[in-house]
Amino acid sequence: MRHEHIISAKQLSRADIEEVLDHAAEIAADPEAYADRHAGKLLGLLFFEPSTRTKMSFTAAIKRLGGDIVDMGPVEYSSVKKGESLADTVRVVEGYADALVMRHPSEGSAQMASEFVDVPLLNGGDGAGQHPTQTLLDLYTIRENAGLDDLTIGIMGDLKYGRTVHSLAHALTNFDVHQHFISPESLQLPRSVRYDLHEEGATIREHTALEEVLSSLDVLYVTRIQEERFPDENEYREVAGEYQIDAGTLEAASDDLTVMHPLPRVDEIDHDVDDTEYATFFEQAHNGVPVRMALLDLLLEGQ
Amino acid sequence: MRHEHIISAKQLSRADIEEVLDHAAEIAADPEAYADRHAGKLLGLLFFEPSTRTKMSFTAAIKRLGGDIVDMGPVEYSSVKKGESLADTVRVVEGYADALVMRHPSEGSAQMASEFVDVPLLNGGDGAGQHPTQTLLDLYTIRENAGLDDLTIGIMGDLKYGRTVHSLAHALTNFDVHQHFISPESLQLPRSVRYDLHEEGATIREHTALEEVLSSLDVLYVTRIQEERFPDENEYREVAGEYQIDAGTLEAASDDLTVMHPLPRVDEIDHDVDDTEYATFFEQAHNGVPVRMALLDLLLEGQ
Amino acid sequence: MRHEHIISAKQLSRADIEEVLDHAAEIAADPEAYADRHAGKLLGLLFFEPSTRTKMSFTAAIKRLGGDIVDMGPVEYSSVKKGESLADTVRVVEGYADALVMRHPSEGSAQMASEFVDVPLLNGGDGAGQHPTQTLLDLYTIRENAGLDDLTIGIMGDLKYGRTVHSLAHALTNFDVHQHFISPESLQLPRSVRYDLHEEGATIREHTALEEVLSSLDVLYVTRIQEERFPDENEYREVAGEYQIDAGTLEAASDDLTVMHPLPRVDEIDHDVDDTEYATFFEQAHNGVPVRMALLDLLLEGQ
């Protein structure tokens, strides 16, 4: 890995991404071979915001590599409460660990923190900013299920606020992918993201209804539409309802469709989809472990 | 272990119980022999409710077997707060661990969760429902101190609401045990539990005063009477006071009496009992480690 | 280590201190040699109050020795909330661990708790009482940077309420040290501490301005002046401002000056000091790991 820190999916070239995904595939094929690889190494966990999936899968990843964690714990119990700056906190904690994962509510905080430390820092989500390990596990899941070349993907739901979506869409421009964006008009891609994708030469199309494109998709990536984005509850229910899917919806899809979701879901994917061949969202969550193992291995190896 | 999940003490036959207790005794006799037995194995901790004893002793147990934990942490910091269903949470987390322990406020939740996962799930307490590992460590403590055959036990305190008591009483019907229940009338065994014990052929008697039976007991199992069960504080004090014991109370007991308590205690056992030969409640808490090591070993071995 | 528990810096003789610091230096010089030394050993963490530095560095320390932790977690999630006494909690938890670290808001609690357990107990701070491992890492940092013999140290800030300061000042009486205390009059050393230092034969002088003594110092130990010690905000700002330092302040200092701070800092040391040769406060925090490794190794070895 030529990078010292992993701050944004945008820093990763196609070669970087393929290095991580190839290594994740090697690890997934023979995890036992990596069980002692980083024995004695400590990963510092700095979660300034709640997290289940990211924190637990980073924990599982370092432990599956033979290492261990040093956890700051909930921020209410930390010296941040005593007015300590983020720069001071990370400079203290780097003395307790061989690498750091940080989640923080402020966009740009991961970049800033990385400038103060000598150990590798991985961004576990910085507010409305980046969440690169989520993007990598999404790419891994797409590649394993549908391939990343000559791919047609539909990304549906809240395309305006979802950092997961922006990051994924950008990363997909490294590959030969047709991207369809499906959302209500009020939650379309922000102009800046659309511009960015065009700049990267992406092939994108926008839709307001899934039917327009469903049958052509290899992958359907669903995200949640949040009630707080709407002025009143009735409008929310009406709009959100149009972007929920169930087993019936998917009858019009290709038999090979892969349905993904970053989770947690509420009701945007009905539980009757869970038992179909389409459902790949739990596998997607589980892929967080080999992908994070691969990243940690590459970063710790480089030290 | 013929079971895949451990949900309820009721699922355990006499043979199952003896398999666990025998194995716990082997482990307690030579813990070093098990120190690397499950190296690399991860136990997922899903505590949707506070716990000290159960969580810490499961943590110690898997670590004493060479394994490690992946902890969801307090529920306020989890995606449950974002509206995720329990079924989704456990299906995600099973991808991070080789077995799961769950504590949850809703009766029946452990059974439900176990139906969604392929890794072993252990119930660490489901509301007013079951807490099978508590029952097993109680049985282990009784067997080590007084034996489970030809045993006379008194169970005292809140017999109406205490799940620990119901579960233990049921499990004891597998052995040759005389069970005495001592409580105020308002906190007697529920009719359904009494019926269940009769169905199982148990020999039970109910009392309102400890003196009626103390001298005949091999084991006295004390539980807490909670203030909130009473309409007013004065009534509580009066009633609860009659079911508190101290060193003086125990002068009428057999020299071999074993006094147990699931802990935490408040004032139902006076501190002057702690230094007597009767006091077995700290040993009982400590027995949680070998008993949970035995269970985990049997479940992980079977995989 | 001739001590079974580490409760107070006052229990440590000069020989004890040197044993710990010498061993910490050995460990820091070759940490790999200690990586499996206490494999399988469990350190119980009982933090009844928030902590970042102490908890994380004890965690790193036991893991760098090959051991692991069993953490009670935040007190809100523990059985302490159900009214359990501290004596009961520690007697339960000692069954899950090979040693205990405890932080508790009540002065004297660590001493009391140690009387109930058979495993080594380390005081991680007991309210206004003692915090001996902080003192040891302070001494280690001083020795590494300036030596403990023929030392001139200035201790500045809140000298009235700071337990860190009292403990350090007392420990320094074991060595050949000139101690200067710099503070506003309202926050001078308490009479009892001053008396104690005189009893120990310490050479101390008190000042209200840093300029009086800065140029003669080998070490400047800065602590925070807290707003809540002052009747009104204006008075606080005026007084506190006089005891803040920046790179300009330090132009009058010796080139070899070592600036320390127990952290977290707010604004008593300006960030422009961080990049100077004087700044030793992050190194000081990091020294918590080898010093705690040394202590744990000595205590666990003795078992």
Poorly predicted regions of chain A: none
Number of domains of chain A: 2
Task: Give the CA-based shape of chain A.
Answer: globular
What's the alpha carbon Rg of chain A, rounded to whole Å? 19 Å
Helix/sheet category of chain A: alpha/beta
* CATH topology-level name of the largest domain in chain A: Rossmann fold
What about the largest sheet of chain A? 5 strands, parallel
**How large is the count of helical segments of chain A?**
10
Q: Give the DSSP E fraction of chain A (strand runs of 2 or more residues).
A: 15-25%
CATH superfamily of the largest domain in chain A: Aspartate/ornithine carbamoyltransferase
* Architecture per CATH nomenclature, i.e. the level-2 architecture of the largest domain in chain A: 3-Layer(aba) Sandwich
Helicity level of chain A: 25-40%
Order of helices and strands of chain A: HEHEHEHEHEHEHEEHEHH
Highest-level CATH class of the largest domain in chain A: Alpha Beta
What would your notes on this structure say?
Three copies of one chain form a homotrimer. The first copy, chain A, is 35% helix and 15% strand. In chain A, strand 1, helix 2 and strand 2 form a beta-alpha-beta unit. Chain A is an alpha/beta fold. The termini of chain A are close together. Chain A contains ten helices and nine strands. Chain A is globular and about 55 Å long. The mean pLDDT of chain A is 94. In chain A, the strands form two sheets. Chain A has a five-stranded parallel β-sheet with strand order 7-6-5-8-9. A four-stranded parallel β-sheet of chain A has the order 2-1-3-4. Chain A has helices at residues 14-29, 53-64, 86-93, 109-114, 132-145, 163-172, 191-199, 233-242, 281-286, 288-301, and strands at residues 42-47, 68-71, 99-104, 121-126, 151-156, 177-182, 203-207, 219-222, 258-260. Chain A folds into two domains: 9-130 and 288-301, 3-Layer(aba) Sandwich (Rossmann fold), CATH 3.40.50.1370; 133-285, Aspartate/ornithine carbamoyltransferase (Rossmann fold, 3-Layer(aba) Sandwich). In chain A, helix 5 (132-145) packs across helix 6. The A-B interface holds A 32, 35, 47, 50-53, 55-57, 59-60, 63-64, 66, 68, 74, 263-266, 271, 282, 285-286, 288-289 and B 39-40, 42, 44, 68, 70-74, 76-84, 87-89, 91-93, 95-97. Chains A, B, C: L-aspartate binds at residues 82, 163, 224. Chains A, B, C: It comes from Halapricum desulfuricans. Chains A, B, C: Heterooligomer of catalytic and regulatory chains.
